[in-house]
Structure formats: C-alpha cells, structure tokens
Amino acid sequence: MDNCVVRQAIKDQRTDAVIGYELLIQEDQSSLYNPSADSVAANTMVSFLSENSDRIFKDKKTFMTFTPTLLFRNTPKIFDKERVVIQIEDNIVVHSLAAILISKYREEGYHFAINDFQFTPKYFSMLEYVDYIKIDISNKLDEEQKKSVANVVDMAHGFQKEFIATGVNSKEVYDCAVELNADYVEGNYISGATMTKTSKMDFMEGNLYQLIVEITKDEPDVEVLEETISRDASLTYALLKMANSAYFAVHHETTSVRQALVRVGISQLKQWIYLLSFEDKENSSEELLKTSFMRAIFASALVKKLKGFVINSSDAYLMGMFSTLEYMIDAPMSDILYEIPIVDEVKTALVSREGKAGRLYELILCYEKAEWSEIKTIAEELGLKTNEMAQIYMDSVEEVNNIWDNVVGMNEG
Description:
With 413 residues, the protein is of the alpha/beta class. The protein has helices at residues 38-51, 54-57, 68-72, 90-93, 98-107, 121-124, 143-158, 171-179, 205-215, 222-230, 233-243, 257-276, 286-303, 313-321, 325-328, 333-336, 344-352, 355-369, 372-382, 386-412; strands at residues 3-12, 18-28, 31-33, 61-65, 84-88, 111-115, 132-136, 162-166, 184-186, 194-198.
C-alpha cells in the first residue's frame, strides 16, 4: 500500500504564523498517526529524505518523533539540528537511560518537544531538556479536563517552555486552545494536512547487504560504496535526492554518486543505510532494476564512441539508470526528475525522447526490442557503427550478468 508523508502545520496562536510542521505518516486516507514503532519511524524518515524539498519545507522547523532505538543509533544526526525538533514520547521518558540520552543531544544543540505531557516524576525529569510541551486537547473540553490542561500550560510557562495544543480539529477546540493560553496550535482546523504520496522504492537486497558490509568497516571504501549504489536506480535516486536536500545546506548541485557520498559523509550515510534496512523488500522489482542497470551501462559505453555529443558518459549512465523510475514511483517522469540535478538534455530525453540524447535513448529502447530497421536509422543519424554497437551491447550484457549474479548470490546467502 502507498504511504503518504504528511506535514501538519504548527501555528502561532496569536499571529497565525507557521513556525514549523510535524512530520507524520499516513498508511491510507483514514489512518494518521505518530510513528511509534522503529520500522514505521524509519520508513517515515526514508520517505522524508527522498521527498523533502525547498518547495515543501522551506526554512521552517520540522517536528519528528524518534523511538529509543533510533535515538541510540544517532539517527537525528542525519538532520540539521537547527531545523529538526526531536519529539519524544512515553517510550523514551520511561527509558532508564533517557536523561543521559537526551542530555547528549541537547549539549550538541538539538531541540526537543515532549508529547502528551503527564504529571509524573519521569516527565518532570525531562523538563530541563525540552523546548516544547504538546498535549492533544481534542477530547479535553469539559471543565475538569480543561483545568488539568491549564495547569500544564501554567507549568510550561513557569519553566520557560512553550505549549503546543494539538488535535485542534474544530472551532470549539480552537477556542479552547485560546482560552488555555496555548502558544501554538496544530490540527485540521488550523491547516489541513498536506500529503506527499510516496511509493516504496525498490532496490536489491544484495546491494543493500553489500552497503551494510562496507559501511560497517573501520575504513569504508568510497569506491565500493559508489559502485554498489551506482548499479541500483532507486539507491542512486534516493541518495541524490538526499544530498541535494536543504538539510545538507547545498550551495552547489550534487550531480553524481561520488559527489553525493562526499556531501553526505560516512557518518550520515551509515544512518541512511540503517533506515533503508527497515524497508520491506519482498516485492522488489528485480527485472526493472536490472533493466535500468543494463541501459545505464549500454548508454554510457555508446556515448564514449560519440565525439562532442550533447551529454557525457556519466550523464548517459544516469539517463539509463533513471529510465525505469516511473514504474517504481507512482508519479509522472517529469515530476520524479523535477528536483534531481541532471542535465536538461537527459530530462528531456526521458520525458519526451526529444533531442539528440532522446534519440540515443530511443536507440537503446529499440535495441531491447530488436527493431533492426529503426536501430540502423538512428545509429546512422548519431554516427554510430552498427557492428561496434553489437559488440558494445554484448559486453554490457556480460558485465551486467556478472555483477547481477554476485548481487543475487548475496540475497540467497
């Protein structure tokens, strides 16, 4: 089932200004909840990393819920500490190492919110570390319940904390939040949740396994990491999306896997791979991935035979690699490529098959279908010799098969 990454606005109750968004995951149109299990939280973050953009998140804070396991794995360090607010729930508060864990992040400059605060010693022990206290007031409208929430608001302000009223889904609840003197409000009455549909990306478990093996070494080999990621369309796409996201303070576009690895760094790459390991890969589209890899190898090799061509071999490789993405992601190719910094000639080729790069792409597709007449026409048009193409194709097939056998062997091992 497709998930939706949902961002719900948090507004200043007095000025109506949006101060940030809470990131949630919605499994279907009726199920909206905070991620509480490691796998759900991890999948939310993977979706976030692959879908976030300046068009969506801009310069606002993002409130995200982290489980104990994700905190112990240093997962928050994937994100800019100035722009992420770590939300903690009861599973963190009651943890025996909670204070040590939270204080470590706090010393490093991270900010915290505590969900559904309770008047218990454990919750009070967390107060020195948090910036925001959140309570769902949607079902707390009678006088006794409002008085209880009012006490929390007064306590929060007394400790110089800010109070966020959540569950503000109607005017009645909004009026209650105003009466309670909440600093911020969140809910459908304030702003409808904005959803970004995300389909799970398909990648080969063998590729992921090799990444895990390499990244856990004392000195990971960047060339091995680059080679492994570069043969998997979805891993390449996801890494480039992440490396070019606002969370990595991008000043120059990252256009290759090697550049992305340098941009992200080994430490954050480890966290990304860790999050990917939670993904359910039972329905992995192996043939699509193999097709994209074959096209990438073939296109790159062909361009090396073309002098002064409009794209270089690296761009041609990405053209082949990304050619199957619209079958892996439920979106038009133009939308998928919108935020990926690949050259315009490649984007045009993949979207409309126009231009010289488009003709090269068409040639590759014709070769797959053995349309010999069209192959001869396009090859002559581009200045390629058909006999050389045949050898290049066979060499590409052999290279792909050799690598794929190793990857599949990892899956079965």
